[in-house]
Amino acid sequence: MINDSNRKRPVVIGVTGGSGSGKTTVSQAVFDQLQRHSLLMLQEDSYYKDQANMSFKERLQVNYDHPDAFDTDLLISQLKALLNWKSVDIPIYDYTAHTRSSQIKHQTPREVIIIEGILVLNDPRLRDLMDIKVFVDTDDDIRIIRRIQRDIQQRGRSLESVIKQYLKTVKPMYHQFVEPTKRYADIIIPEGGQNKVAIDLLVTKIRDILRCNHEL
């Protein structure tokens, strides 16, 4: 049995972009193409702060697109544990209740860790743990349409509430906090999951890193 201390550090890929940009689709496409390796996906949304101490009305007023909405310290702590081949218990967020659920997801370490979320390149401590940083760049009009479809179909939201939130927080926070992180990206993927060439190039690069790791 190989001692964990002698194992090569897992490869970390950060994938970001605005809400509805297609970053989840890109992450899933990479995940699907690398299935012969051991992979896991960390979603930044899992690390929204626990708001059990707040009323439901108060939770509705929270700006969920601001860095303060996330427990980034916990995300970094758990990522570091996974990089040291230690298992973690990931929170599960309840989008309907706007707080963490009572459930957790036990996650064992893997060779490749994909971190996906709107602000994963915002914190330098998190960026420094990444081997490849990806920004999925998609026009505002396409992103709002995708967000409307997702929030109504998957999260039980009304059209009015989705549009109101988008104009009040999602769009301004994107331009203030998300779009500026494009400068840190190693790879920029226009149009998200539709860009098969960029995804294939990203997968090839990850495979090269993994091959080098196995040869060491």
From TrEMBL:
<dbReference type="GO" id="GO:0043771">
    <property type="term" value="F:cytidine kinase activity"/>
</dbReference>
<dbReference type="InterPro" id="IPR000764">
    <property type="entry name" value="Uridine_kinase-like"/>
</dbReference>
<keyword id="KW-0418">Kinase</keyword>
<protein>
    <recommendedName>
        <fullName>Uridine kinase</fullName>
        <ecNumber>2.7.1.48</ecNumber>
    </recommendedName>
</protein>
<comment type="pathway">
    <text>Pyrimidine metabolism; UMP biosynthesis via salvage pathway; UMP from uridine: step 1/1.</text>
</comment>
<keyword id="KW-0547">Nucleotide-binding</keyword>
<feature type="domain" description="Phosphoribulokinase/uridine kinase">
    <location>
        <begin position="12"/>
        <end position="198"/>
    </location>
</feature>
<comment type="similarity">
    <text>Belongs to the uridine kinase family.</text>
</comment>
<dbReference type="Pfam" id="PF00485">
    <property type="entry name" value="PRK"/>
</dbReference>
<dbReference type="GO" id="GO:0044211">
    <property type="term" value="P:CTP salvage"/>
</dbReference>
<keyword id="KW-0808">Transferase</keyword>
<dbReference type="InterPro" id="IPR006083">
    <property type="entry name" value="PRK/URK"/>
</dbReference>
<comment type="pathway">
    <text>Pyrimidine metabolism; CTP biosynthesis via salvage pathway; CTP from cytidine: step 1/3.</text>
</comment>
<dbReference type="GO" id="GO:0044206">
    <property type="term" value="P:UMP salvage"/>
</dbReference>
<keyword id="KW-0963">Cytoplasm</keyword>
<dbReference type="InterPro" id="IPR026008">
    <property type="entry name" value="Uridine_kinase"/>
</dbReference>
<feature type="binding site">
    <location>
        <begin position="17"/>
        <end position="24"/>
    </location>
    <ligand>
        <name>ATP</name>
    </ligand>
</feature>
<dbReference type="InterPro" id="IPR027417">
    <property type="entry name" value="P-loop_NTPase"/>
</dbReference>
<dbReference type="GO" id="GO:0005524">
    <property type="term" value="F:ATP binding"/>
</dbReference>
<keyword id="KW-0067">ATP-binding</keyword>
<dbReference type="GO" id="GO:0004849">
    <property type="term" value="F:uridine kinase activity"/>
</dbReference>
<dbReference type="GO" id="GO:0005737">
    <property type="term" value="C:cytoplasm"/>
</dbReference>
